[in-house]
Amino acid sequence: MALRHVLLTVLQQHEATGYEIIRDFDHALGFFWHASHQQVYRELGRLTREGLVDYQAIEQRSRPDKKRYRITDQGRQALIEWLATPAAPRRFNDELLVKILGGELLGAERLLKEIEHHRGIQEDRLSTFLAIEAEHYRNRNLPELSMEYRLLYLPLRKGIKTTRAWLDWADEARTLLKDGKIV
Amino acid sequence: MALRHVLLTVLQQHEATGYEIIRDFDHALGFFWHASHQQVYRELGRLTREGLVDYQAIEQRSRPDKKRYRITDQGRQALIEWLATPAAPRRFNDELLVKILGGELLGAERLLKEIEHHRGIQEDRLSTFLAIEAEHYRNRNLPELSMEYRLLYLPLRKGIKTTRAWLDWADEARTLLKDGKIV
DNA sequence: TATCTCATGTAAGTGGTTACATGATTGC
DNA sequence: GCAATCATGTAACCACTTACATGAGATA
Q1: For B154, which of A32, A34, A100 is closest by C-beta distance?
Q2: How close A107 comes to chain B (CA, Å)?
Q3: How far is the CA of A150 from the C1' of D27 (A)?
Q4: Is this model's pTM higher than 0.85 or not?
Q5: If you count Cβ atoms within 10 Å of the first and of the last residue's Cβ in chain A, which end, N or C, has fewer?
Q6: Residue B59 to residue A52: CA distance in whole angstroms
Q7: Alpha-carbon distance B83 to A33, whole Å?
């Protein structure tokens, strides 16, 4: 039930339409949260019914009306309560590791190929992160930036560090698989 | 729909009861996959109905009968097909990072406290991983170990590297938050 | 006396994915 | 002419969590 808190957090920073939030999930927000547009619209509907957000309808020609959402006092209250309760540690399921467990059936060569495929994706991620860092944060005084920007720096740093750790692990995996030490 | 493939992978290595698999999820398997006992029993039921696994009932006094599951040829076939199709890259949702985004409302001090709380958990994880590595893998020739053990080494290494990256990030976060550069 | 381990399940609810639906405007 | 962008939604399905249920034997 954390999506609602993501939405409240975003709306606490600035008003937004569902469409805009969804766009954010494909960009900056997407580095640490994913949600489909169906989820976002549904949750915004619920939050409205429960009085945690409200919206101003903006008429448009030849398009569905925009709904510009705002957090309400009640919503801000709920957000503060959530922020104050410690998050449960995340457990995550990693398909690639399962495939490694099944590696005997697949064979070292095909396993390596799969890992290399993911390496490509991770390398792209890292370049994206580094480009954002170079453009927005390097050679700048953090206190000069808006609070919203500053708060995004820690997630970005986390992305950089964990992606590097992943690539580092992939190097090691490659060595162990190529030497036939594992499969 | 990947839980079924985890179950097939485990059963491909050796026969097991649902109970035993659940126990594994709390131990070695748990480092990269989590599933509740309800999920496991239900999925084993489905796999049986679909003919991908079968089981031998073992009568017991004063306890529910054990069901010792085996993978079938059809199941092995399904597993091979799944192994051969590349996994989609994982996207994951990180509550802690959302809280950082909402950090303005919470304040740097409470944010730090929350991060320290998670640090404790991650440090425990790392010690566990290192203990397992020391006991089972360090100062050993990998090829001497059973295939099953060897295959578990890569996930373990991944756990070690990513947990270290996490702790490393937490150090940085602490510095930035303490200096008041972020919040 | 209480908790843990063994060993299996059902039921209800929430969260998330996939597919379907509409329709004008802008850029290649 | 075709795809992408803007802007919203419904419906069906699947995954996962939480709570409830049983009951003996072993250990503290």
Answers
A1: A100
A2: 10
A3: 55
A4: yes
A5: N
A6: 55
A7: 27
